[in-house]
Amino acid sequence: SSQLSWKERKKMEDQSVASLGGK
């Protein structure tokens, strides 16, 4: 949704990647 800024989305995506083992 547009409620999240791109920075918030980026941070959430980074956390998801990290929790999956990261790349």
TrEMBL record:
Residues 1-23 are annotated as: Disordered. Residues 1-14 have a biased composition (Basic and acidic residues). This is Uncharacterized protein. It comes from Nymphaea colorata. The lineage of its organism: Eukaryota, Viridiplantae, Streptophyta, Embryophyta, Tracheophyta.
